[in-house]
Specification:
Distance between the termini: 49 Å
Number of domains: 1
Shape: globular
Helix content: 40-55%
Number of helices: 8
Largest sheet: 3 strands, antiparallel
Structural class: mainly alpha
Strand order of the largest sheet: 1-3-2
Order of helices and strands: HHEHHEEEEHHHH
Radius of gyration: 21 Å
Number of strands: 5
Strand content: 5-15%
Length: 156
């Protein structure tokens, strides 16, 4: 009887070890941190601002620009050859981050999107919006509620 239990425990443990190994294994070239299909976000966004550029544009310290990202006032994604953090230029208005974006970021993140997916979603053209363009254009045009409603539908 003890032999059967030991065999079952060994079988379960080997299954756990196999699942753990499967989680740690990533196929693909080591030099490319993300597959090309995920890098299309760089092409969707017309203007990227590095964090130093963001700080300069807003007239704030670099640490304050980082705080805007940490506080989710803005969402940053790693782009370019050096994979530096950058913020889409469209996320800024004349006085800084667009106020309507913070809640929209929250809705999309609560729905399971990571920052890159959020940026992609906000910059993907949608002909069914009340204004031509993408959800970010609709937010800029004052359709924050409509964009958030669609974000909630997308999430669930």
């Amino acid at each position: 009887m003890d032999v059967v239990k030991d065999t079952q425990v060994a079988s379960v443990m080997s299954g756990v070890a196999q699942r753990r190994a499967a989680v740690l294994w990533h196929a693909g070239p080591v030099s490319d941190p993300s597959p090309p299909s995920e890098r299309d976000v760089e092409a969707l966004v017309p203007v990227w601002l590095s964090l130093p550029d963001l700080a300069e544009r807003l007239g704030i310290r670099l640490s304050d620009a980082r705080r805007l990202v940490e506080d989710r006032e803005l969402v940053a994604v790693r782009v370019g050859e050096r994979q530096a953090l950058a913020v889409p230029g469209g996320f800024l208005g004349d006085d800084g981050p667009l106020p309507a974006l913070k809640g929209t970021f929250t809705v999309l993140a609560d729905g399971g999107m990571d920052d890159e997916e959020i940026v992609r979603w906000l910059h993907t053209p949608d002909p069914t919006l009340p204004v031509p363009g993408h959800p970010l254009d609709a937010i800029r045009a004052g359709f924050k509620t409509e964009v958030r409603r669609r974000a909630m539908e997308e999430a669930f």
